[in-house]
Amino acid sequence: MSALPQVSAARPVASAVAAAPLLAVDAISLTFGGIKALTEVSFEVRPQEVFSIIGPNGAGKTSLLNCVSGRYRPSRGRIAFKGTDVTALRPNERCHLGIGRTFQNLALFNHMTVLDNIMVGRHHLLKNNFFTGALYWIGGAQREELEHRRAVEEIIDFLEITHIRKAIAGTLSYGLRKRVELARAIALKPDLILLDEPMAGMNLEEKEDMARYILDLNEEWGMTVIMIEHDMGVVMDVSHRIMVLDFGRKIAEGAPEAIIENPHVKTAYLGADVEMSVVADAGGPA
């Protein structure tokens, strides 16, 4: 991906190195019957970091993201977010704490407009409830609705999808639907956003655009990003640190230039004789 900056060293993290981790995953394991999807995986993600997870198909990457988001509950281990143990919390409870995500397979409401799909991401920020609903509607509903609309329009402008804001989501191209799903996740106002293969199925131009949006979310919007991605050119260019999984176990973690030279990573994922220039130009396996 020649349009992206080339990696010569790890990108500096905007937050202080000594800052407490935003997310701490401590020795989590996950089993499905007799199948071990994850085995004692531990890692930390710092505030305002882009942390990428790579590995062969079936390595446990999406299962790990599902544990962080609350879709799966690990068989063992602990997950802490902002210093709070969230291991037993449901996905909606983690959403309220500031964790948003996109999915490997699109999960849009195809019969709804782009604008309405993004507005769904603001739902948990609404202040009304059963007891206060009537008074709230009289006093502040219209004002709050306007605030949410403004926030959504800002996201639409940021992702350059103004021209499709009133289009039905199911009628859009795959690349645009991926962008709409990212918009809905951003609308949650997350401190941590989980991206599961955000560039899968995209052409080169779409990948370059998505990589730029991720960088801007991190650098300008201050979001911490955990990303699963197979395109190694993208991973090497946008990540501060990378973790590698193989058969549900962590085999390496570090800065991009260290990961690309790690012999265990070359053997398990990249290929034993791979060179960094080849990886950066060609991308990883599908």
TrEMBL record:
Pfam families: ABC_tran, BCA_ABC_TP_C. PROSITE patterns: ABC_TRANSPORTER_2. The keyword Endoplasmic reticulum does not apply. Residues 23-272 form the ABC transporter domain. GO terms for molecular function: ATP binding; ATP hydrolysis activity. The keyword Nucleotide-binding applies. One of its GO terms (cellular component) is plasma membrane. Keywords: ATP-binding, Nucleotide-binding, Transport. This is Amino acid/amide ABC transporter ATP-binding protein 1 (HAAT family). InterPro entries: AAA+_ATPase, ABC_AA/LPS_Transport, ABC_transporter-like_ATP-bd, BCA_ABC_TP_C, P-loop_NTPase.
